Amino acid sequence: MKLHPVKVHPSKALLPREEQLAWKIAGVATDRVAVDKAVTEMIINRIIDNASVAIAAINRSAPTTARAMAVGHPRKGGAAVFGLPASKGVSPEWAAWANGTAVRELDMHDTFLAADYSHPGDNIPPILAVAQSMERSGRELIRGLATGYEIQVDLVRAICLHEHKVDHIAHLGPSAAAGIGTLLGLKQEVVYQAVQQALHTTVTFRQSRKGEISSWKAFAPAHAGKLAVEAVDRAMRGEGAPSPIYEGEDSVIAWVLDGRSHREVVYDQPFYQVPLPEKGEAKRAILDTYTKEHSAEYQSQALIDLAFRMREQIPDLEAIERIIIHTSHHTHYVIGTGANDPQKMDPKASRETLDHSIMYIFAVALQDGRWHHVDSYAPKRAGRPDTVRLWHKIETREEEAWTRRYHSTDPNEKAFGARVEIVMKDGRTLTDEMAVANAHPLGAKPFVREDYIRKFEILTEGILSPRESNRFLEVVQDLPRLAAGELNLLNIALPRGALAEGKPGIF
Fold it and tell me: How is residue 49 annotated by DSSP?
């Protein structure tokens, strides 16, 4: 990997495109290196993972709405939409919209956390939709997805969006555009313009994850994927983009991110060091990402597992006086009491808000000893008086050691967990800690292919027919051998009449 310093330049400097980050990203996308076998196997795992959570959420409100919008844009030989027969193709940007929303709805697919946050599996719907529509092969899809993961992870390692209250989909637009560029074998100039357009159109703000969190949280990455498809389409037709989008004097870095200093742009000061593979270097970033065993914000994964372990020591949960979760800056300020969001303590809050409340999540996990993507968020479950009492006894505190581990670049030190103190009414204190979730690559039970398949079978039980489930699992594990035009076989159809109908709109 090579570090690329990124800084703001005045327009009069006429920064050569060869020195621009978007051009370098496009260079990675157009470097035809072989895909490692381990990367191919993990891509298959993540396609299974995405399908699991998408089908489990298929009839919830946001995926139903997105699907209804997509079917308003039919296209013969187009991309497939989860739940519908593959023969009912739609325009690829709308398939990316529908499938991306379904994947994101339950907040249960893969994650990567570094300088910023991300769900790299959000790259799969737009890249797959274009691959289906353009009749590409399994190997071409694998190459495109390896790029999408690589670029998103590399941007997330270096550029923090959330401290400027920018939503993390601003890294997804460029990564998906780059992945599509690899998939289609486009020239560097075309990918360069598409990456810039995709970033320019996907800068949105973190209010989507603050206060009363709405269904837009599920739509947001699908929106970025849709815009990435459209950006590539325009660039293929010869259209350009605002340039240089990262380094220009009125660019994203200059006026939204770290380029601002006392309301004045500081020129020629490096703000970021972005790592990218060198020419000829394999794209392996997907191997640094990790999926979720539980349907909740990633920082809660280890805490759910820890709650399961600690509950065995507490015969009477009513005997708890208070619970203090000592954790990282992010967990405290984003999903903890440091957020100062009263909604995170409200039993009438939306599911989207509850899955960003570690106080609620820890209380339910401690009481139930299990976590379920539906039952654990049910309004009746959230409103249980004993749950509300326990929930309101929990607070979070930032602890420097956990913040340092959260931001560590050493994968053996990096952690997303916490130390928990449970103070009992009789004065006893129980203390335990967990650095990473059981399913994490360094956890007690790292996820392997069998775990991804089990997750798929659990989440789709009662929704898919056994025949369709088995067919999909057989096809996806044969991905490298799928010929051009066969990628629609990766779609999953529900039995006739099983799909919810969306409300009418414009489309």
Answer: H
